[in-house]
Design goal:
This protein has 143 residues and is of the alpha+beta class. It is built from 1 helix and 8 strands. The radius of gyration is 26 Å and the shape is elongated.
């Protein structure tokens, strides 16, 4: 009798474990599908690019690390990317709005502490590719 109860108890535990594993695998499968759909959408021609904005906190090779409000992202910047610096400017001068001056610079001219906006294209496999970088003056108008 004890053996029967033990076998029944063991069978129920095994069936429960199998059901829990199947349930967990189903959740993971849904997350993976959602992620794939999101990646396809972000790499589609309908969404040509996205923009990352933040302070340049690290530069390694051609990869910029941008940080904003405690969150960071590393963005590899393509060799063909346009790199621009927007000069410091006054917004009002004699009642007229002054337009910032945009000049082309080299990737090597980007400095830690500057604010940058990177236009990013996401490949179908999820890799980020910086296709344009706009650099803004550091606080206090320094470049």
């Amino acid at each position: 009798m004890n053996k029967k109860i033990t076998l029944i108890f063991l069978s129920i535990n095994i069936i429960t474990a199998v059901l829990l594993l199947a349930f967990y695998a189903g959740i993971l499968s849904q997350q993976s599908t959602l992620s794939t759909e999101t990646m396809q959408a972000l790499s589609s021609k309908v969404i040509p690019s996205i923009v990352a904005n933040g302070e340049v906190t690290s530069i390694s090779g051609r990869t910029l690390t941008l940080t904003r409000e405690g969150e960071s992202i590393q963005v590899p910047v393509a060799e063909s990317a346009e790199i621009s610096l927007f000069s410091a400017y006054n917004t009002m001068m004699g009642g007229k709005i002054i337009t910032p001056v945009k000049s082309k610079i080299k990737f090597e001219d980007i400095k830690i502490g500057q604010t940058a906006s990177v236009i990013i294209k996401i490949s179908p496999n999820g890799e980020l590719n910086g296709i344009s970088v706009s650099v803004f003056p550091q606080k206090g108008g320094q470049q």
